Amino acid sequence: MEQRMQSVLRTDRLAIGVDVGSISVKIALAALGGARDRADLAALASRGYRIVEREGCRVALSSYERHLGRPRAVAVEMLRDLFGAIPESEVDELAVTGSGGKPLAHVLGTKPVNEFRAVATGVRFLIPSARTVLEMGGENSKYILLSPAAGDGVGIVDYETNGDCAAGTGSFMDQQASRLRYGIEDVGAVTEGAARTPTIAGRCSVFAKSDMIHAQQKGYEPGEVLRGLCEAVARNYKASIIKGKKIEAPVAFIGGVSANAGVVRAMRSLFDLGEEEMIVPEEHAWMAALGAALLAGEAAEGRGARFRSPFEVDAAEGGGEESFPRSDRLSMENVVLLRDRIRPYSFPEDGRVVDAFLGIDIGSVSTNLVVLDEEDNVIKEIYVRTEARPIEVVHRGLQEIEREIGRRIRVRGVGTTGSGRELIGELVGADTVNDEITAHKTGATYIGRRLIDREVDTIFEIGGQDSKFISIQDGVVVDFAMNEACAAGTGSFLEEQAERLGISIKEEFSRLALSSKAPIRLGERCTVFIEKDIIPYLQKGAKVEDLVAGLAYSIALNYLNRVVRGRRVGDVVYFQGGTAYNDSVGAAFATILGKSIIIPPHNGVVGAIGMAILARQKFQGSGRETTFRGWSIENVDYSIRDFACKGCSNFCDVQEFTVEGEKTYWGDKCSDRYRKRPKIDRRAIVPDLIKLRDEALLEGYDPDRPGGPAVAMPRAMYFYDRFPFWNRLFTELGCRIVLSDPTTKNIVNLGLESTIAEPCFPIKVAHGHAANLIQKGFDHLFIPNVIDSETDIPEMESHLCPWGQTLPFVVGQSGLKERISGRLLSPTIHFRRGFEGVRDELADT
Predict the structure, then answer these.
(1) Residue 600 shares a structural domain with residue 612
(2) Which structural domain, as residue segments, surrounds residue 770?
């Protein structure tokens, strides 16, 4: 590599490298050898290019341009701008690389350069001593191990890239920092002063987003949440990209995410690398573009430009549009909008003070406050972003209410709901705290009785992060469902994609979606997968309006298939929640179901309306004075203390929340000491079945049994079915059994870091148990290759899951391979063959 690089640098060539990523476009112009003197790079400096000097080469690096779904157009515009300063005739060659490089390379008549080669070449040029490259981009991440002496090649010894589930690191970080009102460049300073760190899931951005919301609702500050996210991103990279591969210093950490000082700090800590061992070059985002330029310079043979002029090509994305899968056009024909059927509230002309009831719905994305009078008329409603600051946002809302109508109302009752209902309920002094299902049902039935002749029987509620389905019969909830984590984020997902496409979620999204004549069918898969499809569609010529309409369809399909799941959908369907402000999603529901979809007034604050009604009902039923603490939360004496419960091996994070001297505990808790006090005196009749199961499972097991070879067994997978059998067998053989510890967060992380394949979570945890046993020490690690189980019906097959069957082989080839080599016992067992068959198989081992 060094010899080849020196040869390239001695040539008299001017070459351009273009890196078209999933989020941005970067350009590097390399003036090699004698071309350094003839190229007027100062003209580029005046256009925002940064000039980098190296021995034998001068490089001009463009600005970092986000393409907002228009990669070809932005790249062509940037090239045209470059050739406004450097004559096109002076450029010898142009190369294109990056995840979105192929369409541009085709248009410009040049061959795309492999991303790994481009990155390795760029790093070798700027950091010759680097042995490992860790890259985190907007959608794609890479690992490259370089050889000390590469000879004539680029010197790549090993490499890895992310799968779909680990995608979106950079764009996800951008979105979450923006949602918390921080620029990505501010994250480092904000996280450095964080006093505590919540645990954020790192494997999937959907789960990570859910964990961030929950952390905010537990009272974590935005800087603390962002620090947890930075650490999760680092763990995710180690688990899904490194997978136990070798890390040799010096390490070059590059890509857009490396500009985030919080992630850099987390990566150095996780990999135990000092500042000199992990280098973050100033040109971190331009490595692929620089490498492509150098490779283009190497390929040029002095025959003049071998690429098509950007002034001669069409900058618009195009090609292949007719081949896209399509859906029916969205229609508002069956969508009933009730927003215009309400009139502003008028206070009594005599100036008397009105008895009022306050409802507060603290959601993951929005916080809603509603004030009703005694007849359930809406006096005032507030719909604001939670912005990871629930206490601050509620305080501002209360101040606004006091400022505008405080003198005209007397608060008689307060109710809270939503995912932050407990925290805010304690702070404001709520008279009633209810779940979201009850709140939304109460609010929806009230609106139905007021505005239409029939009572609502079905509620579709989609918020920023949470979704609910409620079936009602005669005013009573008869069935309901809430989203799982993998169906979460529907409302916020739409906003993020609108921002990514450069359109307004409020003004443009619905208008564009409803104008589409042939929406593109994106399906109802995981939002991570849908997100990855959008940019390639645009690169192939898809229209923005068709994609936006496809997103509206995908939200509706995702909800129907993952939340409703075949439950009965009635005839009077209300679509509410913040997402219902987007008429195109209501149109998607109506088109898919062929039913009338009603979007009620106050659709974003129905839960808060329901809580105000419930507060009124409680006041009128009990006659008790409200416990409302007043309009300023800042005057409430409260404190939050975090600690780890040591009641069991899980070491759950618990928060002690003290309000006016009264302590409550919440968070992840199972200990009797920290549970909420029961409101009724009721004792469980059935004993603790989990405890009984554990006692029966370990009966006869003696961890202190002396002598004999130590046989280790992971406390995972089919251990919970077969341990009594294996315990008896090895004890009779004179062995001492060593069990891994019960599953903890540490064991989970050990498993994620050592897993190479992409199996299910239990298999990953099993890897962690094997790693835990390595720490304990053993003579043999016993993980049987169990194929099937006993069955009462001979004709019925009883095969175990393929991952369960192959667990010993997967663990044997994982990052733990070297430490268990020659000590893994994995007999093939068919329990379906009966006792004699199992005996024979064991005897053959």
Answers:
(1) no
(2) 692-843
Contacts of 594 (CB under 8 A, 6+ apart): 334
Residue 768 located in a structural domain: yes
Confidence of residue 323 (pLDDT cuts 50, 70, 90): confident
Q: List own/partner pairs for 38-45 with CB under 8 A and 24 or more apart.
A: 38/14, 38/90, 39/14, 39/86, 39/90, 40/85, 40/86, 41/86, 43/85, 43/86, 44/82, 44/85, 44/86
Determine the pLDDT at residue 422.
81
**Residue 296 domain flag:** yes
What are the DSSP E strand ranges found in 297-408?
A: 335-337, 354-362, 366-373, 378-385
Alpha helices in 254-327 (DSSP H): 261-271, 287-299
Tell me, yes or no, whether 492 and 618 share the same domain.
no
* Nearest alpha-carbon partner for 598 in 610, 588, 590, 606: 590
Residues 254 and 301 placed together within one structural domain of the fold = no
Conformation bin of residue 46: beta by default, left when phi > 0, alpha when psi is -120 to 50: alpha
Residue 748, pLDDT score: 87
- The two structure tokens encoding residue 245: 């591969």
Three-state SS letters, 144-174? EEECCCCCCCCCEEEEEECCHHHCCHHHHHH
- Within this chain, do residues 650 and 757 fall inside the same structural domain, yes or no? no
Look at residue 300 in the predicted model and tell me its pLDDT: 56
505 vs 387, which has greater pLDDT?
Answer: 505
**Distant-in-sequence, close-in-space partners of 774: CB < 8 Å, separation ≥ 6:** 816, 819, 820
CATH number at residue 522: 3.30.420.40
Which uninterrupted H or E stretch holds 402? Answer: helix 390-405
pLDDT at 315 over 70: no
pLDDT confidence tier of residue 166, bands split at 50, 70 and 90 = low
Show the tokens assigned to 520. Answer: 């593109």
Residue 324, number of CB atoms within 10 A of its CB: 18
Tell me what the mean pLDDT of segment 610-614 comes to: 96
Please report where in the chains the tokens 């008790």 appear, as a residue.
624
What pLDDT, on the 0 to 100 scale, is given for residue 680? 42
What is the pLDDT at residue 599?
93
180, 222 Cβ separation under 8 angstroms: yes
CA dihedral 793, 799, 804, 810 (to 10 degrees): 150
| Both tokens assigned to 64 | 């970092």
Residue 669 pLDDT grade (very low, low, confident, very high; cuts 50, 70, 90): very low
Tell me what the pLDDT averaged over the chain comes to.
Answer: 84
- On the question of pLDDT at 101 being above 90, the answer is no
808: which 2 tokens?
A: 């010993």
**Residue 659, strand partner residues:** 638, 662
CA nearest neighbour of 32 among 92, 78, 75, 74: 92
pLDDT tens readout for residues 793-822:
666 777 888 888 899 999 998 888 888 888
Tell me how crowded residue 405 is: count the other CB atoms within 10 A of its CB.
Answer: 16
Looking at the structure, tell me whether residues 661 and 696 fall in a common domain: no
Give the angle subtended at the CA of 53 by the CAs of 50 and 56, to the nearest 5°: 140
